[in-house]
Amino acid sequence: MFGAIEAGGTKFVCAVGDELGTIIDRIKIPTTVPEETMAEVMAFFKKYDLDAIGIGSFGPVDVNHESPAYGMITSTPKLAWRNFPFVQALKDAFSVPIGFNTDVNAAALGEAIHGAAKGLDSCLYITVGTGIGAGAVVQGKLLQGLSHPEMGHILVRRHPNDEYQGKCPYHGDCLEGLAAGPAIEERWGRKGFDLVDQKEVWELEGYYIAQALMQYILILSPKRIILGGGVMNQKQVFTSVYHYLQELLNDYVSLPDLTEYIVSPGLGDDAGITGSLLLAHQAFTEENRRK
Amino acid sequence: MFGAIEAGGTKFVCAVGDELGTIIDRIKIPTTVPEETMAEVMAFFKKYDLDAIGIGSFGPVDVNHESPAYGMITSTPKLAWRNFPFVQALKDAFSVPIGFNTDVNAAALGEAIHGAAKGLDSCLYITVGTGIGAGAVVQGKLLQGLSHPEMGHILVRRHPNDEYQGKCPYHGDCLEGLAAGPAIEERWGRKGFDLVDQKEVWELEGYYIAQALMQYILILSPKRIILGGGVMNQKQVFTSVYHYLQELLNDYVSLPDLTEYIVSPGLGDDAGITGSLLLAHQAFTEENRRK
Q: How far apart are CA B183 and CA B176, in angstroms?
């Protein structure tokens, strides 16, 4: 039996289950400060006899096993969590193998094994919500190089009629700065769910996301793209994405029908927590191989 | 002993050597039509008793082993080579395992094993010349998904003072359309080597390449970036790249010193042919494993 944590900026989801994605218990915990939040996490897991725990965490995190900061949340704007030794804290409490990656890499893994990219050795999972993040499975493994991807901050070309300055504290009008939830709210002066009938809002959203997908496709060539997160609940954004992406790519690369290639998460809101169970399973398997 | 082909749009380089990168014989053949060019390739290799042949080819090519078009050059503008069954032609003539990938993936592999990224399990190789292409090694393997990467065609933001319309037949002002050799020549009215003293030419070049590197870094997080190709022989472009990339990333991701992170090919012009020898070696090893 495995434990899983989907650690988000506003809430933690903890679950107990198996690598098939079966969940037998779960809990939501508000993200406050590590002392409080983690105390509740520990109390929840203590009820079970776990073989391993998997963490899909908000970031940036250090996922490089050779780094002294491995397993830590690093330069997050959430100051209480900066340099929090996530892996070590759980190892100290449970003495089991701990899997650790970004929330979006966990979700990509969940979707690749049990969700919309089941059976494929490659997929890209993107969440468009409070922020924009993406994780990828490449040739069967979670994408990792020097660090984990930070795909939400790529550059896009501004729409000629869009005068909104952008909200990213680092890059101003990068993708996240122009297209995440807070940017939508600030640009149009209302929250997304009050804008449902404003066609131009979601058309523009698709305009920016399509550009991002063009870059991801030309660079990574994923076998399927999964678009999740609160903003993507506006299904009209998909229509806009298909339209602009077709126009941008101009048949340069051959892709499956876009409506089958770019889809919603097969696991709905459970992509991240399912992926975290898989991270636990991977950590467990690896530990046993080492023995 | 292995054979290697670096198949370019204007010339083929063929070599005989080993997986350590030692080359004992090589030849250059102009790229005309398959009947002519391949006849010379065959004649060159017939002199040797080869265990396998590796091909790093101009593209697009089909590198998907499960595809019926595997081993072919596909939709190239060089009409005589369209649908040329590269792998099959060599298999028919030599009955040895054939390794096959893009020219830039071959070069990335060469640099990862014997060049500027030696000892790393990840690197990105970019060539800026007649076209712009890139290959990548990710977690020790050549990057491949639905197809091979087509990174030269990503979108960049135009410089506000650049009025050149771009030269890409598919996307107009994508990276290749704005920054490859032919675009430089058309924009400034002279060939690159007549523009060596025009600081603004290379500054603008760096402006576009830096944007591309930003996207590549945020998406792939390579452990080292190797910038080759004719245009990059203008070392002043590196200075401009470092400057703009620093500005664009704004310390959002932590990178090694840029002058050590973004470098020239360690193998010089031999990255591609060395990588093709390694593709031969891989094909040979795989074939033996299967037996």
A: 8
| pLDDT tens digits, A150-168 | 999 999 999 999 999 999 9
Nearest to B266 by CA among B117, B129, B123: B117
- Provide the 3-class DSSP secondary structure of residue A188: helix
Q: Are A49 and A1 in contact (CB under 8 A)?
A: yes
Alpha-carbon distance of B98 to A102, in angstroms, equals 38
SS3 state of residue B102: strand
The pLDDT tens digits of the residues spanning A85-136 come to 999 999 999 999 999 999 999 999 999 999 999 999 999 999 999 999 999 9
Q: In Å, how far is B173's CA from the nearest CA of chain A?
A: 11
Cross-chain residue pair A221–B148, CB shorter than 8 Å: yes
Task: Compute φ and ψ for A146, nearest 5 degrees.
Answer: -60, -40
Lookup result for tokens 């070049």: B205
Q: Say which amino acid occupies A118.
A: K
Contact B154, B213 (CB under 8 A): no
**Partners of residue A145 in chain B, C-beta under 8 Å:** 122, 138-139, 220-223
CB atoms closer than 10 angstroms to residue B60 = 18
Closest by CA position to A136, among listed A146, A147, A126, A145: A126
To probe the interface with B, which of A146, A151, A258 has the most B CB atoms within 10 Å? Answer: A146
Say what the alpha-carbon torsion angle A37, A38, A39, A44 is, to the nearest 10 degrees: 100
